[in-house]
Design a protein that fits this description.
By secondary structure, the chain is an alpha+beta fold. The chain contains 6 helices and 5 strands; from the N terminus they run αβαβααβαβαβ. Strands 1, 2, 3, 4 and 5 form a 5-stranded antiparallel sheet that branches. Helix 2 packs antiparallel against helix 5 and helix 3 runs antiparallel to helix 4. It starts with 11 loop residues before the first helix and ends with a strand. The structure holds flavin mononucleotide.
């Protein structure tokens, strides 16, 4: 007979993770961020290729991203309100982590598995945020393909920007 574990409190953390759009201070401090990034590194990783980079963005980088988002929106012909909204996106939440995947040719681990491992690392990061009492939001959008955004992050052509993880305290 199988155990009735549907409401098992040990699963509560997994059920508690939700995308939190409105995030304010405080964000995770340096020690908490280090612990969260450590948890990300516990992701399943076929071949132990570690095909991801998680980078906590500093203020100047977030400001530069903000400019790049606005420039991309303006280049798409969006109106002033939409450009202002685009400009605000990289500034949302006290902490933003850029998630980059880079796959390599491998005889046993195809690129899709490497991308999956990188996504698992991002999920672990989000779960670690939940575990420590923070909200998280994994965001992509057209910005992740934008050359201006990629230039701010100094990405190589082989790098795939798989998103930004916004972290902070839920405000709503
Ligand atoms: C690869 C990926 C990209 C995402 N990009 C966005 C995004 O650009 N904007 C957004 O609001 N949510 C984004 N999300 C979050 C999902 O929209 C969200 O998980 C979904 O709405 C379900 O909500 P929940 O996380 O609270 O269960 C993304 C999720 C993943 C896995």
């Amino acid at each position: 007979m199988s155990r009735d574990v549907a409401g098992d409190p040990r699963l509560a953390l997994l059920h508690a993770r939700r995308t939190v759009s409105r995030l304010g201070p405080p964000g995770p401090d340096a020690a908490e961020l280090a612990a969260m990034l450590d948890a990300a590194d516990a992701a399943p990783d076929h071949g132990r290729l570690h095909p991801w980079r998680l980078t906590v963005l500093d203020g100047p980088t977030r400001d530069a991203l903000s400019d790049a988002y606005a420039a991309a929106a303006a280049a798409r012909g969006e109106d002033a309100e939409a450009v202002a909204r685009a400009r605000s996106k990289p500034l949302r939440g006290p902490v933003v982590v850029a998630a980059v995947a880079r796959t390599v040719p491998h005889p046993r681990v195809p690129a899709w598995e490497q991308l999956a491992a990188a996504a698992c690392a991002v999920q672990n990061l989000c779960l670690a945020a939940t575990a420590l009492g923070y909200g998280s939001a994994w965001r992509t959008g057209t910005a992740v393909e934008d050359p201006g955004v990629r230039a701010v992050l100094d990405l190589d052509p082989d790098d795939r920007l798989i998103g930004f993880v916004h972290l902070g305290t839920p405000t709503a």
